[in-house]
């Protein structure tokens, strides 16, 4: 991973203008397309598979007249006056509204004449409050709530203006969608705080602006993408807000980490372009894996099986992915463009280590690690206790910002008609199997009379086909109350008894019942979600840190974090503590998907800090092997960046709380508080204590698992090794620019080898690991450690270019196939990119083959199948083809060949003078082979032993120089 990111960062740094222009074009293009398509976000929620949703779907098909949206026009008289004095105004408004397009029916509180599709009526006295100070007009539409045209809203407003002009309070609910996707101005304050924190961290106004610019571009692209997708599939209006909130936070954090590492590199005197590539390879690797954990958690929301929540998770994951792409491509281009202007100046340049207070803190928390761990765990467990009482619901107009028209209407209905009036239950019944329609309607209506918790039951009425009946029930409790949820369950439990008595059954639906079903579905999904997401992330963390304890401690800390975050959210939004101070729009149950969403996002963010912190500890442990020193040094190296990242993320999340909409507020507060708790209490207090308590055991991994897991290289060890190798090569570039040069290099399980073979020289290899050495020197295996340069190429980093200019002939020859000898030679001979000479090279290969075979068995005819050749003939044929190719490096394993010294003599005479040759020999053939070697070629001899057979302090070196 780090090597790949190094190449990406180096490309972006070198082609900075191309990358910048391309990104700007993509962002502008996506924004333009989103503007053309328009806003198609939806504020409604559907949950397939629930009783409420299936009943709503059936209602839409069989009773379309009432399947559309419904609205209420609430009219209140001035204090102390009766609404009946404005009867004429109200009746006129009823008739004007009934005449509008898309209006199916209007139920007026007073007698009205026929208008539009609405017949004349005597009025519904139940729509006048008991005090007589308030009334409402009920409007049934033919369109869904998501399809209400702006013209209809304007027409209803125009029809109600005379009542407002007369001094009545008029408010309409159910027409305009709730404003849940807007971005409040307080987000600018959050960005301002982030800029201040960055400026203090970097000590540079220019450097502080870079993360904000890249994060804003990433969020702009993600928001445009969500808008584009919303034109094709249903997308919740909350999705862009969540994506913006999360995209800003992680985008700034990721840019902060990479920019901080880049400035550290510049401080050490590294070239700006190289510094950018190294920063992307090291800090960028940690960023990629941290982002992957966030995306796993967000995509895991699909486990709940709720479409709108899945889309929200995918949208937020897309924002994180965009932030990652920006961080590893656009950011290095911008950093490269600024060049040396980002070199720290003054105090920042002189800062060689973290402040003493950081070191003091980590020493304090690790002095008595067990006591620290117990104390932190107990504290967070207590804070998490209120979370057990968190209530869930789906938002209705009562969650709109105070003062909005829908919220005013909601509050008026609650005041004048009771809390249950804002959340009526709709009961649908399939009466297609009965011919006694009147009796069925009476039975359906009477079934709910006298049931505790019900205030009113409407008259049951059928559809035109007389195969479905509907009745409306008004509870005496609010839509989000536990009493209403219990009432829904009670009514559903009675359905079986009702069916046995009447021959048909009913279903309870409506938005209130749907909200209850969604809450139940989400509650049931939390455990599977936790198992899937945490399980996958544990695997990812095990790969990252190559440890069992580190992922477990990370998950333990996360559980404490999410519990504490939800506990504080409960205290504020359920208990109301500090609600007015924070500008909370609604004290009461929070949106149903809040806990599972907070779990997903906090898991990813917690793993961010864990990666940033523990990767530095691992780096120190790998370098020195001292577990306690690794905790202290790793903490000190990362504490400043984690502190800045946490403060930035807190400011971004918290900016969505004051004055924000009631759906996002609890989510934002839980995330903001959770970030602070996770960064400062868990990651910077509990985790150092646990790591110090575990010592070297924190890095233990079973040997079988270590071999099975891929090496993630999260701290760019491969890149640091490449840079070290580059310095080693440049220290003697004239010599190490050609030939084979190894310093304590290992190939697979071989012991370290040190050897220098000049260009056109010969290396003779013997010993148990000779085959692995041959494969490594020809660029055929990646498992090469130590310093190794072949033809100036650093191995294993430039292994692929080496494999293109090298040939390996293994001990066992090429298996036979249906090709002829000449076809085989022409296929395997190396052309080196030159056209037109393959026939000559094939002819030369056959000549060399004759010299190498040198005895009975050489064929006079070459147009024969390869199958007639024995093993020795096939091997010498492959060797001849290799020699005829005149490759830069030719590696021949001839340990199975007879007369190896004589074969070596013939090989050296046939080989091109510019070719460096590696020969694997048996033990007994080495000395005779050396004596027969041509004095015109420098010869080195080396023994390849298994690492287990040789003490680590010893390594094989040159034995013979001819």
Automatic annotation (TrEMBL):
Subcellular compartments: Cell membrane
Keyword vocabulary terms for this entry: Cell membrane, Membrane, Transmembrane, Transmembrane helix
Domain SSD: 188-337
Keyword Transmembrane helix carried by entry: yes
Cellular component aspect of the GO annotation: plasma membrane
Transmembrane residue ranges: 188-208, 215-233, 239-257, 278-308, 314-338, 370-390, 522-544, 556-578, 590-614, 635-657, 663-682
Keyword RNA-binding belongs to the record: no
Membrane topology: Multi-pass membrane protein
Primary location class: membrane
InterPro entries the record matches: MMPL_dom, Mycobact_MmpL, SSD
Domain of life assignment: Bacteria
Protein name in UniProt: MMPL family transporter
Source organism: Microbacterium schleiferi
Lineage per the UniProt record: Bacteria, Bacillati, Actinomycetota, Actinomycetes, Micrococcales
């Amino acid at each position: 991973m780090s090597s790949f990111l190094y190449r990406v960062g180096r490309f972006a740094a070198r082609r900075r203008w191309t990358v910048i222009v391309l990104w700007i074009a993509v962002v502008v293009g996506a924004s333009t397309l989103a503007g053309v398509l328009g806003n198609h976000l939806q504020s409604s929620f559907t949950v397939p598979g629930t009783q409420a949703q299936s009943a709503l779907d059936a209602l839409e098909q069989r009773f379309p007249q009432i399947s559309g949206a419904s609205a209420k026009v609430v009219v209140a008289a001035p204090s102390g006056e009766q609404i009946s004095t404005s009867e004429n105004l109200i009746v006129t408004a009823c008739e004007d509204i009934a005449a509008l397009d898309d209006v199916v029916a209007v139920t007026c509180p007073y007698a009205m004449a026929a208008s539009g599709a609405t017949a004349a009526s005597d009025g519904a006295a139940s729509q006048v409050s008991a005090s007589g100070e308030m009334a409402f007009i009920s409007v049934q539409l033919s369109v869904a709530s998501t399809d209400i045209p702006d013209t209809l809203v304007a027409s209803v407003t125009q029809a109600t203006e005379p009542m407002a002009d007369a001094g009545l309070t008029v408010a309409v609910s159910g027409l305009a969608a709730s404003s849940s996707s807007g971005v409040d101005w307080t987000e600018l304050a959050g960005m301002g705080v982030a800029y201040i924190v960055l400026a203090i961290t970097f000590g540079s106004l220019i450097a502080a602006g870079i993360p904000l610019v890249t994060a804003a571009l990433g969020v702009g692209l993600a928001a445009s993408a969500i808008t584009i997708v919303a034109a094709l599939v249903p997308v919740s209006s909350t999705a862009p807000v969540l994506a913006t909130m999360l995209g800003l936070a992680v985008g700034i954090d990721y840019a902060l980490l990479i920019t901080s590492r880049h400035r550290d590199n510049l401080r050490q005197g590294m070239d700006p372009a190289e510094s950018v590539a190294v920063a992307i390879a090291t800090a960028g690797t940690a960023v990629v894996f941290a982002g992957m954990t966030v995306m796993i958690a967000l995509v895991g929301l699909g486990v709940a099986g709720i479409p709108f929540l899945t889309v929200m998770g995918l949208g937020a994951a897309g924002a994180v992915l965009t932030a990652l792409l920006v961080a590893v491509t656009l950011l290095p281009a911008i950093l490269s463009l600024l060049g040396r202007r980002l070199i720290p100046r003054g105090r920042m340049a002189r800062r060689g280590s973290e402040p003493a207070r950081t070191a003091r803190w980590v020493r304090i928390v690790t002095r008595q690690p067990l006591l620290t761990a117990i104390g932190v765990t107990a504290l967070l467990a207590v804070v998490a206790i209120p979370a057990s009482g968190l209530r869930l619901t789906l938002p209705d107009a009562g969650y709109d910002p105070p003062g909005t028209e829908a919220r005013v209407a909601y509050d008026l209905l609650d005041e004048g008609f009771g809390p249950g009036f804002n959340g009526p239950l709709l009961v649908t019944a399939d009466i297609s199997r009965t011919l006694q329609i009147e009796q069925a309607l009476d039975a359906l209506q009477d079934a709910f009379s006298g049931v505790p918790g019900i205030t009113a039951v409407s008259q049951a009425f059928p559809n035109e086909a007389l195969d479905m009946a509907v009745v409306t029930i008004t509870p005496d409790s609010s839509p989000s109350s536990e009493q209403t949820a219990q009432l829904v369950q009670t009514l559903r439990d009675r359905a079986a008894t009702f069916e046995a008595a009447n021959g048909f059954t009913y279903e309870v639906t409506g938005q209130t019942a749907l909200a209850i079903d969604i809450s139940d579905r989400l509650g049931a999904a939390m455990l599977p979600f936790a198992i899937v997401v945490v399980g996958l992330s544990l695997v990812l963390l095990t790969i990252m840190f190559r440890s069992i304890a580190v992922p477990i401690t990370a998950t333990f800390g996360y559980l404490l974090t999410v519990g504490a975050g939800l506990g504080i959210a409960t205290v504020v939004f359920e208990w109301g503590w500090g609600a007015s101070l924070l500008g909370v729009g609604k004290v009461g149950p929070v949106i149903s998907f809040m806990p599972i969403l907070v779990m997903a996002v906090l898991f990813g963010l917690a793993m961010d800090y864990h990666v940033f912190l523990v990767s530095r500890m691992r780096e120190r442990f790998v370098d020195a092997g001292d577990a306690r020193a690794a905790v202290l040094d790793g903490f000190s190296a990362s504490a400043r960046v984690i502190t800045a990242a946490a403060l930035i993320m807190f400011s971004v999340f918290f900016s969505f709380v004051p004055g924000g909409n009631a759906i996002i507020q609890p989510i934002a507060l839980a995330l903001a508080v959770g970030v602070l708790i996770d960064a400062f209490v868990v990651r910077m207090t509990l985790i150092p204590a646990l790591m110090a308590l575990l010592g070297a055991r924190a890095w233990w991994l079973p040997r079988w698992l270590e071999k099975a897991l891929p090496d993630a290289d999260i701290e760019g060890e491969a890149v640091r090794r490449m840079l070290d190798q580059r310095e080693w090569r440049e220290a003697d570039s004239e010599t190490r620019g050609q030939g084979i040069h190894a310093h304590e290099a290992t190939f697979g399980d071989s012991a370290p080898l040190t050897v220098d073979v000049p260009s056109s020289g010969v290396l003779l290899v013997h010993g148990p690991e000779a085959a692995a050495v041959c494969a490594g020197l020809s660029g055929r295996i990646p498992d090469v450690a130590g310093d190794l340069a072949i033809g100036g190429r650093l191995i294993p980093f430039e292994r692929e270019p080496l494999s293109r200019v090298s040939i390996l002939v293994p001990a066992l020859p090429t298996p036979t196939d249906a090709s002829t000898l000449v076809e085989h030679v022409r296929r395997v001979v190396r052309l080196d990119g030159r056209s037109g000479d393959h026939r000559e090279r094939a002819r030369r290969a056959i000549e060399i083959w004759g010299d190498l075979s040198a005895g009975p068995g050489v064929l006079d005819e070459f147009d024969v199948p390869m199958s007639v050749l024995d093993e020795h003939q096939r091997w010498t044929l492959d060797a001849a083809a290799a020699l005829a190719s005149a490759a830069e490096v030719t590696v021949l394993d001839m340990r199975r060949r007879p007369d190896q010294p004589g074969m070596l003599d013939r090989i050296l005479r046939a080989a091109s003078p510019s070719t460096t040759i590696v020969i694997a020999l048996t033990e007994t053939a080495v000395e005779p082979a050396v004596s027969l070697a041509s004095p015109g070629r420098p010869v080195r001899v080396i023994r390849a032993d298994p690492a287990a057979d040789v003490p680590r302090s010893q390594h094989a070196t040159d034995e013979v120089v001819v």
